[in-house]
Amino acid sequence: MDEAPDRRGLLLGTSAYLLWGFLPLYFPLLTPTGAVEIIAHRIVWSLLFCVLVLAATGGLGSLRPVLQSRRTTASLAGAGVLVATNWLVYVYGVLSGHTVDAALGYYINPLVTVLLAVVVLGERLRPAQVAAIAVAACAVVVITVGVGRFPWVAVVLAVTFALYGLVKNRTGRTVGALAGLTVETATTTPLALAFLVWSTAQGTLSFGAHGGWHTLGILALGPITAVPLLLFGSAARRLPLSVIGLLQYLTPTMQFAVAVLVFGEEMPAARWWGFVLVWVALAVMTVDGVRAGRARVPVQTTVNQ
Questions:
Q1: In Å, what is the CA distance from 181 to each residue of 71, 124, 164?
Q2: What's this model's pTM, rounded to 2 decimal places?
Q3: Closest to 177 in 3D by CA, of 281, 274, 83, 272
Q4: Most CB atoms within 10 A, among 44, 246, 263, 269?
């Protein structure tokens, strides 16, 4: 088997997660724009970027079968609401000094995904998975009691992204990554435009009111949102799921480092203990996943594109 696609896939996947990891450094540059306006712009300019890419690559026709299926369109609309909610809470967390909680959310996301597979899909948990979820739950309790507040930013991010992943898993087999993202953003664009029009009428819109660089930064939200998703989509077709599972920890690790080393967010003992418990849970689940994968009948997992 030619190993070049594997190396290319690893480069694509690593690039996607690194871009997501650096994202907390970007949003403060858009001050004084608030979280809601940032997300409204992010939706609108992401849609425009996706449409332009589809037009440039001759892929506009891929939207027709998606839009002709009411069920698929409804599923993608739900995915759009979920990812928009995830974006909003994430940006709010970064701008309000809760980047550590945001990192925690993406650390516990794989555990929530496993739990969701049990609740929604009826899958059975292996003992190690049960132990990992229990340890993660203890981590949330430790942080809540020790810090004195429930880490709602982390929990909402983990749950919304897990639900988003579930919806994408159901539609991703028949809908391409770019076409799916286009429909997702298109379904939430009317709400985004309504907010921007309302803000303009109220005189509170920051777009265009703080210089050229600020305006350019907001316009760049389109490619900044879409490019990592497209890189990830390409990587996911070339890499085994086990590799993707390990790469995904790059993003919260970088977010955690940015929060503590750059933003100077506090890390009291209770929060450290909570993170240690989460890391233990992830280690248990990762080792269990590797062992379970080796126990299955070997199959070719990498597809040359």
A1: 16, 31, 12
A2: 0.83
A3: 83
A4: 44
